[in-house]
Amino acid sequence: MTDSGTDLARLSLNTATTKRWTLAEAVDGTVRAGLGAIGLWRDRVAEAGLAEAAARVADAGLRVSSLCRGGFLTAADDAGARAALADNRSAVVEAATLGTSVLIMVVGGLPAASTPGGPALPDGDRNLVGARQRVADRIGELVPFALEHGVRLALEPLHPMFAADRAVVSTLKQALDLAAPHPAHAVGVVVDTYHVWWDPELEAQIARAGAQGRLASYQVCDWILPLAADPLLSRGYMGDGYVDFASIGRWVTAAGYTGDIEVEIFNQEVWNTPGDEVLAIITDRYVRHVLPSLTPR
Amino acid sequence: MTDSGTDLARLSLNTATTKRWTLAEAVDGTVRAGLGAIGLWRDRVAEAGLAEAAARVADAGLRVSSLCRGGFLTAADDAGARAALADNRSAVVEAATLGTSVLIMVVGGLPAASTPGGPALPDGDRNLVGARQRVADRIGELVPFALEHGVRLALEPLHPMFAADRAVVSTLKQALDLAAPHPAHAVGVVVDTYHVWWDPELEAQIARAGAQGRLASYQVCDWILPLAADPLLSRGYMGDGYVDFASIGRWVTAAGYTGDIEVEIFNQEVWNTPGDEVLAIITDRYVRHVLPSLTPR
């Protein structure tokens, strides 16, 4: 546990955490800090150019732990649905090109609220059951394409406070139910501590994900209070809030997860901090709060 | 549906909605608006005096749909636990005196965060599983006392965004699991649309509550965006947000619920509005968005 090269081998920087860095800066910073992997957002990849991004990460010797993100599949109209499916196929191709099999899927909110942070529309479609069915249908449409490209759709349940405007998939159980009709290597699930730490069924559903071989990604950050004015930016460094990383890490390990651990923190204060400082804090918190529970016993 | 006396017979004003009104003002306003019931908060009752409050509500011919609230049972220390149990016994006596069998229970958050809105304490107790077990144990301790007084402990799942600082009971399923060891007339559950509207298991769990005779209270208000700076105050009038009242009302009705429908809105703008105006809006929204689905078919 004192060999930092070993300690940080599974740690991954999600590029949203160091929002001001270009992809090149994030790759260099991740290598400097001794991490083994990087999680990429599509906007940073697009800025760098897909081929250039893929080459740069590969040359740096980093794994790509995930590509963020596909999804937003809840449109109620045909044109919206077609556009979403086309965008998701592009994301699948990008993931394959970048050498990752994990495409994180944020499935989208109610159609009336699908512009994240947009205002409530009194005449909007409030049919949550219907929106969830459309997600199921469209995942099914994407599966053959994802399989052809060796990419797994990793369904991410988001905290229920985002159910209206960002993701109608709110629990790990629900994500696993959506995944169930498809092969495990085609559809997996994401455990992001910020979104699922509160769930009374978390231990059981992580075990279920493990038993089915569907645990595709483990993302960590903390739940801090008070919530930020924009709750999306309310994530904190591990150890600053209420998440029980020891228990969740033990459950994830018991479920057989041996993949990367991505740190994804949306937080204005973190974004205002120089990237190397952020990485120093992250590695310290990871070693203290996350890593101990990841060692199989 | 055009007889307003019939229309509003099951509608109840929760006094937290008209926060600036004294208990006497709330009772008079509720009568003026033609509602059949009122839901009381303990602070308003204490201000008026328990006996005076009971007499005033009874003289006005209103039912007391609930007393808010008992709970906050998660203290990790003996002194804190004893104080919480004593306070809950007082609440049981108050409910019985006021003539309501429904004592709403907000069970409390993690001990480190149990001062609502308080800051995150890095050294706080993050053991959510343990906190939930303490709730189960202390409900068990309160049941005999509640039964003696003819009062039902109505467990309210709160939205998961309050899991750290207010309620470690986050879903209706979890509330029903906590209630299961006890007689249905001793421990029931609350469905508050603001807290549970997002739950993929809501229909099934409302049906389960109905089958067990545990559906003790139905509270309505809307989920609006963006969230208020204090998310506790982010509730909106029915129809202003994303809650599917038609579906949830149908499920509650199918579960056999025939009790009062309480409107509980914490919202600074609503609190700044004169109480009679608030009641006019509430009755209009109730008749349009809530009542149609409450008619058994």
Largest interface: A-B, 46 and 45 residues
- By secondary-structure content and strand pairing, the structural class of chain A works out as alpha/beta
Q: Low-confidence parts of chain A lasting 5 or more residues at pLDDT below 50?
A: 114-123
If you average the pLDDT of chain A, what whole number results?
93
Main β-sheet of chain A: number of strands, strand sense, barrel status?
A: 8 strands, parallel, barrel
Strand content of chain A: 15-25%
Q: What is the total tally of β strands of chain A?
A: 10
Number of helices of chain A: 12
Oligomer: homodimer
Helix content of chain A: 40-55%
CA-based gyration radius of chain A: 18 Å
The ordered H/E elements of chain A are HEHEHHEHEHEHEHHEEEHEHH
Euclidean distance between termini CA atoms of chain A: 14 Å
As laid out across the biggest beta sheet of chain A, the strand order is: 1-2-3-4-5-6-7-10
Tertiary shape of chain A: globular
Explain this structure.
The structure is a homodimer of 297-residue chains. In chain A, strand 1, helix 2 and strand 2 form a beta-alpha-beta unit. Chain A has twelve helices and ten strands. Chain A has helices spanning 4-7, 23-32, 42-48, 50-59, 78-98, 128-148, 172-179, 193-196, 202-211, 245-254, 268-271, 275-290, and strands at residues 11-14, 37-41, 63-71, 102-106, 152-155, 187-192, 215-220, 222-223, 235-236, 261-263. Chain A has 297 residues and is α/β, with parallel strands linked by helices. In chain A, helix 5 (78-98) packs parallel to helix 6 and helix 9 (202-211) packs parallel to helix 10 (245-254). In chain A, strands 1-2-3-4-5-6-7-10 form an eight-stranded parallel beta barrel, surrounded by seven helices. In chain A, strands 8-9 form a two-stranded antiparallel sheet. The radius of gyration of chain A is 18 Å and the shape is globular. At the A-B interface, helix 6 and helix 7 of A face helix 6 of B.
